[in-house]
Structure formats: structure tokens, C-alpha cells
Amino acid sequence: MKYMLLVRSNRSEWAEWDDPSDDALATMDFMARLNAELLASGEFVDAAGLANPVLAKTVRNHDDASVITDGPYSEAKEVLGGYWVLDCESYDRALAIAARVVEFGGHGPDTVEVRPIMTEDRGLEM
Fold first, then answer.
1. Which of 84, 105, 106, 107 is most enclosed, with most CB atoms within 10 A?
2. How far is CA 35 from CA 18, 30, 39, 126, in A?
3. Which CATH homologous superfamily contains domain 2-116?
């Protein structure tokens, strides 16, 4: 079953990534090691960190027309910082991987949302 792990970050921490501290570099190293481990286990499908939210645009429908605004939800304190797509044997395994990410500490994320990915027939393999 495939799962998406959505990494949430505090918007105020993004400046740290422009000139990474030792904590931020340690977090990047941890993520690289975790990706290598997940690749070796066959669970890794895809992953990426996202650019600074100041570069984001949001497209909304307003009266059947698209309206483009700068940034993610303006009132949001947490923003999407990156994701993993994993192919795990169980929901519990995906949750265990997410727990490792939030327990790393340092400059790592403190929130990871885990969601099953629906199959082509719009069902879940669970």
C-alpha cells in the first residue's frame, strides 16, 4: 500500500534553510540517510523538499474563474515543507517511519501527516 507523508514546517523556520545552521545540516544528513534506507528496503517511491513558501502561488476558483494569489494560505503558521511517497506493508509501518522523522529533533519537522494513497479504482488496499 502506498502512503504519502506530508512534512509540515513552521513558516518562521524557512529563513534557516537559506543559510543552514549545524542543526539544519544534520537534519539534511538524517533525511538523506533515511532516504537511502527506504530505497534499500524497497519502500521508497518518491520524496522532495519544497521551496520556500514565499515562492508559492495559490490558484482558487472564484465565480467560475481562476484567481491566482501569492503564497500559501496567508493565515497559516504551518506550511507544507516536503513529502515522501512510500510503499509500505502496513499503515503501522508508515506511521513508524513518520515517528522517526518527528523524533529526530534538531531542525527537523515536528509534524508529519500520513495518508493512504487511493488506488486507480478509487479504493484503498487496506
1. 84
2. 22, 9, 6, 24
3. Dimeric alpha+beta barrel (3.30.70.1060)
